[in-house]
Amino acid sequence: MISFDEAFEKVMQHTQNWAVQTVDLLESTGRVLAEPVLADRDFPPFDRSTKDGIAIHFSAIEKGRSTFQIEGVLSAGMPQQSLSSADHCFEIMTGAVVPQNTDTVIMYEQVTLENGSATIQSIPKKGQNVHKKGSDAITGKVLLQPDCRITGAEIGILATVGKSHVSVKKLPKVCVISTGNELVDVSEIPLPHQIRKSNTLSLYAALSKENIIPELLHLTDDKKVIQENIARVLQENDVILLSGGVSKGKFDFIPEVMESLGVEKVFHRVAQRPGKPFWFGTQKECSTVVFSFPGNPVSTFANYHIYFAPWFYGCMGLPYPKKEVVLDQPIRNDLPLTRFVQVKTYAEKGRLFASPIKDGGSGDLASLSKSDGFICLRPREHTYEKGELVPVYDT
Ligand SMILES: Nc1nc2c(c(=O)[nH]1)N[C@H]1C(S)=C(S)[C@@H](COP(=O)(O)OP(=O)(O)OC[C@H]3O[C@@H](n4cnc5c(N)ncnc54)[C@H](O)[C@@H]3O)O[C@H]1N2
Ligand code: MOO
Ligand SMILES: [Mg+2]
Hints:
Layout: E1 2-3, H1 4-12, E2 20-24, E3 37-38, E4 48-49, E5 53-56, H2 58-62, E6 67-74, E7 88-92, E8 104-107, E9 111-114, E10 117-120, E11 130-131, E12 142-144, H3 152-160, E13 165-169, E14 174-179, E15 183-184, E16 195-196, H4 199-208, E17 215-219, H5 223-236, E18 239-243, H6 254-260, E19 264-268, E20 270-273, E21 279-283, E22 288-293, H7 297-316, E23 323-327, E24 338-348, E25 351-356, E26 373-377, E27 389-394
Parallel strand pairs: 1-20, 6-7, 14-17, 14-18, 15-16, 18-22, 20-24, 23-25
Antiparallel strand pairs: 2-13, 3-12, 4-11, 5-7, 5-8, 6-10, 9-10, 19-21, 21-22, 23-27, 24-25, 24-26, 26-27
Helix pairs in contact: 5-6
The chain binds ligand LQZAQKY5, molybdate ion and magnesium ion.
């Protein structure tokens, strides 16, 4: 059995790269950008008024003028105009092009309009309320580097530079498989000896947060059925996530089936709780990566977040957000294995605290909604003290 740190390192050594694809702008939301995005013109592309008011040439103020004859009204979307005399002004709206021969905008609140003239009530600063052409970025500047997650902010930038199609990293094709004769569909009424499938649906939901829509498959505990189906699934997918069938039971066929299909075992069993019988391997010919999680619900859930999530970030070239929390009570782990304890986190005085949740072991599926993460407690003789910082995996 290997330690958690060794297992984690081995998983991270098997990151994959699934090439790139071009998608429509709005479909790129949540995806990882695969190209640099440059400013196609200056930002802003013209001297732009930032207030509704009047545009003047500041030299008129220096000469002591405070009343200006209004030459016209400018709205956003009008081509640039030209002021014919420094004794005049234009009324100008936010977003409109500042006219030639003007350099300063005074907002309506500081102006009185009367008989076609505007009188200013206070002395403005030269250049005020003008968002200068190219002041945010000049043409050709890199606005977005590749390997960033596309959120609403990036969509706005992509739209502004005219990217109706965006190059993004491809997502893996994923199959999520449940195994077990006791499992029935959500819509069924289970017999007394049966339970409804839940793990694979939790995995489906977690994957969909990453924009991955997996194929879902259920297999009975029949070696031949498992073998035939996994042979096909290996060919058709980049990643397989399994739940169940990896421990010591007479019907836990996954490890031997995987090896019979040429999936090379990287490790089986990790000194951790929950999630100990985790099996991880790769089929080199079709470069499919197999995460075979132990069937107990908390084990499947924990291992997805502890191993798969950072691995997937690694594949996408994204840094995995490492996080620590402050323990709000002492907790021991003098076992010779790494413990992952469910916690509820909360913020207080600018710090993030974690409160351990009592659960009924790794079969206690209902406990998962009371927590929002797992803290990682490596084996250690002395107690983890109240106030100590420990790593946390968000769920
Ligand atoms: N002799 C030993 N027995 C067990 C060991 C051990 O080391 N020696 N390890 C225990 C640990 S720890 C775990 S975790 C489980 C892992 O079992 P498997 O991966 O073989 O999973 P199954 O036997 O198929 O099922 C276990 C449990 O989980 C439920 N399950 C499975 N799949 C689902 C699903 N999709 N949705 C909901 N629930 C699911 C299943 O009904 C069982 O109750 O082994 C221990 N045993
Ligand atoms: O380690 Mo198992 O994953 O606790 O139930
Ligand atoms: Mg089992």
